[in-house]
Amino acid sequence: MNKHPVLLGSAALLFVAVIDSAALPQIAPPAPPPNSAPAPYTLTMGDMMNTLVQPRHAKLGLAGRARNWPLAQYALVEIRQAFDGIEKAQPTFRGLPVAQLVEAALTQPMNAVDAAIKARDPKSFDTAYAQLTQGCNACHTALDHPFVVIKTPDASAFPNQNFGPHQ
């Protein structure tokens, strides 16, 4: 004779409950209200740096290396506009004012790059671009991201763009 009739009875009831619940129609989660807008995606600082600034930094370096001064000027304007947008989208990062960080780390080097482009001076451009790159890395270090190291591009990540001067 079985010494655990209560346990066997409970197991049998559980089995019947599982079988019965499998036969019940499945209840779908509630549908979103009609015409509801999806939640907007907010770019993180990393998203903005990777998509807005880093490609323009690379293009500026490639255009400068090719001595394509109009393209270099355009890339510099694009970097400045990217930072203006970032400052508006995320005025603070890790409790620090983004505009002041950009001002301290990048304004002087960007002005030097601008002057070198206007003078069409390759040596001054290379020096100023290196200072701009150092400013990027100094800002990363100040924000506890020293592992994000930007460098002068040694190859183009944009095989579909000619960086040489346009004739």
Walk me through the structure.
- This protein is mostly helical and 167 residues long.
- The protein has a domain of 98 residues: Up-down Bundle (Four Helix Bundle (Hemerythrin (Met), subunit A)).
- It has five helices and two strands; from the N terminus they run H-H-H-E-E-H-H.
- The protein has a two-stranded antiparallel ribbon with strand order 1-2.
- Strand 1 and strand 2 form a beta hairpin.
- Helix 2 packs antiparallel against helix 5, helix 3 packs antiparallel against helix 4 and helix 4 packs antiparallel against helix 5.
- The longest helix has 22 residues.
- The protein is elongated.
- About 4% of the residues have low confidence.
Which structural traits does this protein have?
two-stranded antiparallel sheet; 2 strands; mainly alpha; Four Helix Bundle (Hemerythrin (Met), subunit A); 167 residues; elongated; 5 helices
**Quaternary:** single chain
What is the correct CATH architecture of the domain at 45-142? Answer: Up-down Bundle
Output the helix-strand order.
HHHEEHH
The global form is elongated
Q: Write down the overall mean pLDDT.
A: 87
**CATH third-tier fold name of the domain at 45-142:** Four Helix Bundle (Hemerythrin (Met), subunit A)
The major pleated sheet works out as: 2 strands, antiparallel
Radius of gyration: 29 Å
User: Hey, roughly how much beta strand do the residues contain?
Assistant: under 5%
- Largest sheet strand order: 1-2
Low-confidence stretches: 11-16
N→C terminal distance: 100 Å
In helices, the fraction of residues equals: 55-70%
Q: CATH class of the domain at 45-142, anyone?
A: Mainly Alpha
**What name goes with the CATH superfamily of the domain at 45-142?**
Oxygen-evolving enhancer protein 3 (PsbQ), four-helix up-down bundle
Query: Care to count the β-strands?
Result: 2
Helical element count?
A: 5
